[in-house]
Amino acid sequence: MNIIADHLKELFEDKIIEDFRKYIELNESSSCYVILSDYALNNKDKTNDVVSYSIVTCEELEYLSNKVKKTAKKDIKNTRSINPEFIKLLNRKTLFHINFLLGERKIFSKKGELSKDKMIESIQLSLNELSSSKRKDVQERKIKLQALESEISKKSSNLKLITEIIIISFLTAYIMFLLTKEANVTEIAWMSDRDKITEAYNQTVFTMCQQNHYALCVRNNVSTSKLKNMYYFPTEDGIFFTELVRIPDYIAGTLSDWNKLSPEVSKEKFVPILREVISDNNFCKLFNLSFSEGKMRCNEFKLHS
Predict the structure, then answer these.
(1) Are 1 and 215 contacting, i.e. CB atoms less than 8 angstroms apart?
(2) What are phi and psi of 271, to 5 degrees?
């Protein structure tokens, strides 16, 4: 996956790093961060496929959860209007939003680094790296990677779903990598909305994210010595942070409806998010991201109200 890492460095990280560092500086007392994520994918009635992330300091979680309960009681698709107090919440300086509009997603090429054979080879390499450990959590990761390897090898494999798992696991890992590199972080958690992407193949997406994060840190000589814990949710026991995931849900829902050529939205309720949260906000980033035959394209969108 080196080709993706190289492109993200040039086309994504370099575009946000100045503002990301300002965000980290404003929250320098925090050593614990949570990455909230939501997805608006494969809906034929919507204009865009969207992956939205909201990074937040752990100290804010209880406050945000209580405020969301009062100001955004439903997901955006089930609400008629948006409370102005929730808009203020989305603009808090303890939050940093990163959004991707996903275009073509032909990540598997017939040959080269992103071919199915190379992907299987990469998984086998990860399995070899884990083979010497007898830790229970490592054994569980091996089982999940073996299941994914088996699925990719099938002629009837669901490459569309596997592709989305690969993309989202890598994007999340890259955000974790940036936090590891730029912040004085000891704990990172990924809290995702429950989706096929997080549930498929025994929640393999979390294992892939963990492996990708490790590989990015090694490749870039970024120390993980201070990073004591990494958490991934939802677990198989369920989701306990419904209110928090509404933060990226409202942004993803708005962007999925947004016509970037016009630019317009179909309902008035999306306008405040578009104008007051996404537009002219250095702490809310928006990118086009696409893959075609092993080639990646990524460019930043800057919206102005």
Answers:
(1) yes
(2) -60, -45
Predicted confidence at residue 149, as pLDDT, reads 84
Give me 274's structure tokens. 């578009």
Cα(254)–Cα(72) distance, rounded to whole angstroms?
Answer: 14
User: What is the C-alpha separation between 260 and 42, in angstroms, rounded?
Assistant: 17
Q: Is there a contact between 99 and 53 (Cβ–Cβ < 8 Å)? A: yes
Q: Which amino acid would we find at residue 227? A: L
Instruction: Give the C-alpha separation, 213 to 188, whole Å.
Output: 11
CB 186 within 8 A of CB 228: yes
Q: Place 2 in a pLDDT band, splitting at 50, 70 and 90.
A: low
| 3 state SS of 293 | coil
Residues contacting residue 82 through CB under 8 Å, at least 6 positions apart: 72, 76, 250, 269, 272, 273
8 A C-beta contact, residue 243 and residue 69:
yes
> For 59, which DSSP code?
G
Quote the pTM value: 0.91
| % of residues, the chain, pLDDT over 90 | 60
8-108+158-301: CATH homologous superfamily? Ribonuclease H-like superfamily/Ribonuclease H (3.30.420.10)
pLDDT in tens, 65-108: 999 999 999 999 999 999 999 999 999 999 999 999 999 987 76
User: In the β-sheet with 49-57, what is the strand arrangement from edge to edge?
Assistant: 229-233, 187-192, 32-40, 49-57, 95-106, 284-292, 295-301
Q: Which helix (H) or strand (E) holds 147?
A: helix 136-153
Strand pairing category for 187-192 and 32-40: parallel
Cα–Cα distance, 288 to 17 (Å, whole number): 17
Tens-place pLDDT, residues 219-269: 999 999 999 999 888 655 555 678 999 999 999 999 999 998 887 899 999
